[in-house]
Each structure stands twice: as structure tokens, then as C-alpha cells.
Design goal:
435 residues, mainly alpha, globular
Amino acid sequence: MEAFTSWIEKHVAPVAGKLGANRYIQSIQNTFLTLVPFMTIGSLALVIVSPPMDYTAMEEGIGRSFMQGWQSLADFLFYPFITVNTITTGCLALWVTIGLAFFLSRHYKMNSYLPVATATASFVATACINAEASLMVDNLGGTGLFCGIVVSIASVELFRFLSENEVGRISLPSSVPPALGDSMTNLVPATIVFFAMALAATASIMVTGAPLANLIATVFSPLVGAVNSLGGVLLVGFLMPFMFWFGIHDSVLTSPLDPFLYNNLYANMDAFAAGTAATALPFVVTPPFVWYFMTIGGNGATLALALLALRSRSKQIGAIGKLGIIPVLFGVNEPIIFGLPVMYNPMMFIPSILNMMLNGAITWFCMDFGLVNRAFAYPGWNVPSPIGAFLATMDIRAFLLIVALVILNLLVYYPFFRAYEKQKLQEETEQEAVA
């Protein structure tokens, strides 16, 4: 194990570190983190106006009365709440384009609004203009997400290259206001970016008859399918705790996955809003799938481990359990990861990986066979898993599945935890004898 750990630290950790520090991955991560309020508010707005059961098919009783009241409230609030959903999650690709351009231009220390505006205009050109040269809104949401990312990066990079090389630079007297000076100085770079994106959009329309966003989505579709497969779930379930055990944060893996996960979520959201049954939505693997069903309590499915630690006979482990139980309920498991610890602890290597893979596989089968609704909302990563799973699917079976998975995680962790606890008890006894 020591030789393997040394090899990982020498060969894998540096690569992961460079990947995590990559400007594009950091910008994508910062963009999605910034848009969490949009996702949470938009998802909950859809949930509120989407009662999970049809009260007309229910027998008389409290349940029917409750659902009837919910339906009446949903009918009353439908327009403003759907409006909120539309301007948040329904325009996700637009907000991601703006955010990615902002963070990427800030990385290059381009303290100007022009690169952001140029990237946004480029997205409109490639995603929101149809073959009749009219504006369309079809790709403002999840369907235009990949286009927004690709076009935002391409436009900012082209703008930066032209600006840094002073292509067509216009010299102005110092008396000109800074904002006007900046825009006029970069008039030619902005013009070149606009026409480059317009030509790319035109080529796509001429060849495929559809906006460039549709072509980009088609190119990425094999990767979307791979992420949504059982094999993809097992790979993610293995790599997340594997890398975290060696001290490599899971964001190195999950940040590049975010566009795929959110693409799936918003496709489900659109399908659900259009009347598709929650068990028949297009995708299984979404952000709620990963953060509620796989990482129950945090990377490594550590809620079960925190529950075991809470009742430990070891003073040290018990103290960590008391310290970590509340944070881990909300998906913050650093007290357990670093305090127990899980990281670099040989006893926790196998169960942390096994639990994540089991959680992912079982949930995938349950959703794939229609035993549990697929997610169409995302209240936020730090909502406790049972509650978040219910809100994301509006299915009580999702809540029960989380409970069953926690019990399974307890059983998997138990023998490894007891062996580790025995070691700690022996250490504490020896320390007390010396004292």
C-alpha cells in the first residue's frame, strides 16, 4: 500500500493538480458555483407548481385533500413561478456563457465588460438565430449549454489574442473616458470575433440547416451517453473516493462533468414540464443523482461512517463523530475525512470506494427500471440527501431508497470501522498507561 501511495503521489497527484488548476476548468467550476441560487430557485419553483400526484385518482382522505390544496395553489401561482423557472434554469446556457466569459477574462486580467458582451453576442449568433435569420429561444436552456461553453471560451481566447497583439489598435488621446477608450481600442478585435462567429453560424446553417448549437450538442452526445451509462456511474463512483483518499479534491473530476450533468438535468426538467412521466425522463445521471444518491453525506458516502463514529467506544473517534455529524448531514464531510481520518487511512480505502459504487449502481438500476423517479429539480448540493432526493424527484420512494442505501453503507463500513476502532482503543489504552 505504501509503494502504491507513493506512486500515486508521484505520478497521478501532479497531473490532477495541473488539471484542477486549469483556467478553463476553474472558470467552469466558478460559473456553476455562482449560479447555484439560479438552479435552486428555478428548480424549487418548478417543484411547487408540479404536485407529485393527481388528486382526482386518489381516495377520499387527508392525502387527497392535501394534494387538492397543492393543486389549487399550483394553479394560482403557476404563471409567476414558471416565469421564475424560465428566467433561471430555462436560460441556463445564457447565464453560463456570461459567467464563463467573466471568470475567464478575469483570469487574463481583462478588466473590461467588452469580452463578456462579445462572448454573449457570439452565443446569440451561434445558438439563437435560425435558418430564417430570426431570433429563437430554443437553445437558451440546457440544449445550448455545450455551445455556450465552447463559444464563450473561443470568443474570449480570440478576443484576447487580437487585443494582446494590438490588431487594429486605435490610439486615442488620454482625455477620452476610460470606458470609451477601451471599447474604441478594441473595436477591431470585437469586430473580428463577431464576424468569425457569424461565419461559423452561417456555415452550420448551410450544411446542417440548424444553428451551430445543435451541431455542437450532436458532437458531445456520445460523451453524454457515456456519462449516463452504468459504466460511467461506476467509473465516477470509483474515481471520486479514490482520488479523495489520496488528497486530490473531487472537483478535479466533477468540474469537467458539470456541463454533462446539468445538460441531463435540464433536459429532464424540460421533459417533465412538457408532461413526461418522472419515471420516463431522458436521463438518469444528473447532479442530484451524484450528490444525493451516490455521495450520501459527502465523497465516500460518509454519513454512515459519521453515524458509526458517533457511537464509538474510542474517545477520539467519538469526538470526531460528534463534531462531524451535523456538517455531514449537509454534505460537508471534511471533519470526517481529515479528522477520523478517511484520507490515507488503509482501513477506509475499500469501503469508501465500494459504497460509492454500490450507491451509484443500485440507484441507476432503480431509476432505469422505473422503480424510482428520475431527478428533474435540484434544490442544492448541501440539502440533506433524503430531503434533497425527495425534492429532486418528488417521489417518496427516493427518500426510502436513501434510507436503504445508508443502511447498506453502514453494513459495508462496519467491519472496517470496528477494526480501526480496535486500533484506536489500543492506542488510547497505551497512552493512558504511560500517563
